[in-house]
Amino acid sequence: MKQIIVSLLGLILFSTNVWSQENGKISGYIFGDLYYMAANHNKEIEGNNGVWIRRVYLTYDKGLSEEFSMRLRLEMNTAGDFTSKSKMTPAVKDAYLKWKKGSHSVYLGISPTPTWSVVEKVWGYRSVEKTPLDLQKFGSSRDFGLAAKGSFDEDKVFNYHIQIANGNSNSSETNKGKKYMLSLTAKTKGGFIVEGYVDYDERPEHSSRTTLQGFAAYQSKSYRFGLQLAQQNRQVKGEDDAQFRIASAFATAKFTETTSAYARIDRTFEANSSGEKISYIPFDKTAPSTFIVAGLDFTPIKNVHLMPNIEAITYGENDAGLTPDSDIIPRLSFYFKF
User: Fold this and answer.
1) What percent of the chain has pLDDT over 90?
2) Which of 28, 124, 324, 331 could be 315's S-S partner, Cβ–Cβ 3.0 to 4.6 Å?
3) According to DSSP H, which parts of the chain are helical?
4) Which domain holds residue 95?
5) CATH at 45
6) Count of domains for the chain
7) Stated pTM of the model
């Protein structure tokens, strides 16, 4: 399977001119960091430093008719777990057929979920860090299934994104359950955005999950700010139901055509049992946390961004009455697209 994907990647690269003549489009981007683990609750990785690529996208889009189009996107990245030495391997990120009529679209295949699509677009710095629900593994950005999105009105003030999917991200289906997702958004011409989101994930052995999210933001040409609140209820067989809550706020400002700044703070009110598995920035899994990221964005030329920033995590007390050490990670993030 890996050989097939690599061969497909090579075919895409060497066939660009042919596909361009057929109205296809190839695009992509790369981002990563020069990093230094200046302090960490895990002393085994404290002091680690180096360069990693957190994402490579290679995308092929093609119009098939006035109403139909398709997308194939490959993703590659390093493991980010401080132990793996494996090379970057391509994986299919998007593979869908799209039908569009007026302001409504239907997607069949692997397509973006509505879980944090709106939040990520307004935040605008995925190349610096994931949005809170993405970072804390509350869901996935892609899924196999059927989705529809569009607007309820001509001015595109009131919008929807609904999806019925396998619930296993871009991996194969492994159970009978399905995941149901719905986002309703209001966007005014004045720059205000309000979103309500809900999903229900049917998992095996009576371990379903329900997520609720509220998001409010304002954006203009010079600055953006947003506030996000989310809660996920998890059923665990043989145990009491678990509840996980996140609150987040961010702000960005554009000072000149080539210089911007950004800052964000997330608060998780319960410990994340999967915290140590978070790539590139593992969290202590025993204690609630406060995450902060802040930095600058320099654009020396179009489509190239150099973004010095610092990430920091502080922790509350765990069940044993202990407070894990803080994490501090200075970085120079880079991002360029084509």
Assistant:
1) 84
2) 324
3) 2-14, 16-21, 117-123, 132-135
4) 2-337
5) 2.40.160.10
6) 1
7) 0.90
